[in-house]
């Protein structure tokens, strides 16, 4: 590996990142730009991405573009990859990050929340990944990355719809790896525990009584930081992970083995 590849392992790559306006998605965009990738960033509010995208381009010497994309709209996944690809004259990395959660017990579960969660967390990213994977296979290869959750692999109370959707998305990602691996497409899932984004800090970091039972199940006794997810994204998208396909990578401090 050349010094340039070591310092900027995604140089020459072009990536689409969904849900990039805040939280994990914003940090993934930062990390990928620092690693040399040209980026198409999406969020429901495209205007909120304009300034961050311009900053990343200026700081890291990469190309950036922005698309507004509401993944709750069933028409969006079918066209998003084509629109994003046209902005960069092709793409070879998809980071399916956008998602939402309505924490509630099974007894309080509403049909509206269940349907919205499956629409945004499963249907939209699965269809987008299928469209991206097919395009990558036709053009010689690429990388599909799913930001899933430890809740996809181990049940989490008050996350019935969320866990169901993320588990389905992990299996969709495995199927892409199986069907398209021989054509140069790698597909993997990243499964974090609680990540202390601004929102995660408010929900978990500032509520010790809520956090304590969860922390007790994590051998490292802490939650993840956004950078710890982003670093895995960069690694999986790079040639350093060229033999990693169809895997679920936990970023959980040992939560899944406790």
Brief characterization of the structure:
The chain has 9 helices and 7 strands, in the order αβαβαβαβαβαβαααβ. The protein has 258 residues and is α/β, with parallel strands linked by helices.
Explain what this protein looks like in three dimensions.
This protein has 258 residues and is α/β, with parallel strands linked by helices. It is 47% helix and 14% strand. A 7-stranded parallel β-sheet has the order 3-2-1-4-5-6-7, sandwiched between helices. Helix 3 links the parallel strand 2 and strand 3. Helix 2 packs parallel to helix 3, helix 4 packs parallel to helix 5 and helix 5 runs parallel beside helix 6. The longest helix has 29 residues.
What overall form do the CA principal axes indicate? globular
In the sheet with the most strands, the strands line up as 3-2-1-4-5-6-7
Spell out the helices and strands N to C.
Answer: HEHEHEHEHEHEHHHE
Mean pLDDT over the residues? 94
| Gyration radius, rounded | 17 Å
Residues in helix, %: 40-55%
The poorly predicted ranges are none
Q: What structural category characterises the helix and strand content?
A: alpha/beta
Strand content: 5-15%
Q: Let me know the largest β-sheet.
A: 7 strands, parallel
- Number of DSSP helical runs: 9
Total strands: the figure is 7
Gap between N and C termini: 37 Å
């Amino acid at each position: 590996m050349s010094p340039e590849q070591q310092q900027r392992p995604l140089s020459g790559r072009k990536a689409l990142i969904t849900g990039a306006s805040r939280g994990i998605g914003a940090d993934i965009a930062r990390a990928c730009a620092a690693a040399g990738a040209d980026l198409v960033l999406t969020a429901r509010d495209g205007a909120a991405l304009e300034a961050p995208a311009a900053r990343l381009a200026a700081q890291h010497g990469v190309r950036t573009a922005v698309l507004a994309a509401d993944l709750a709209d069933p028409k969006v996944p079918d066209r998003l990859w084509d629109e994003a690809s046209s902005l960069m004259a092709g793409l070879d990395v998809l980071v399916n990050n956008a998602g939402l959660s309505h924490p509630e017990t099974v007894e309080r579960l509403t049909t509206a929340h269940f349907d919205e969660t499956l629409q945004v967390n499963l249907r939209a990213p699965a269809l987008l990944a299928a469209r991206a994977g097919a395009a990558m296979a036709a053009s010689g290869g690429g990388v599909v990355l799913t930001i899933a959750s430890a809740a996809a692999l181990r049940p989490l109370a008050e996350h019935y719809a969320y866990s169901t959707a993320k588990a389905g998305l992990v299996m969709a990602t495995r199927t892409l790896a199986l069907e398209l691996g021989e054509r140069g497409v790698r597909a993997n899932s990243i499964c974090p525990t609680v990540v202390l984004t601004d929102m995660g800090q408010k929900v978990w970091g500032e509520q010790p009584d809520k956090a304590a039972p969860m922390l007790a199940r994590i051998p490292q006794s802490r939650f993840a930081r956004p950078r710890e997810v982003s670093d895995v994204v960069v690694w999986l998208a790079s040639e350093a992970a060229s033999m990693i396909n169809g895997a679920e990578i936990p970023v959980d401090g040992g939560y899944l083995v406790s």
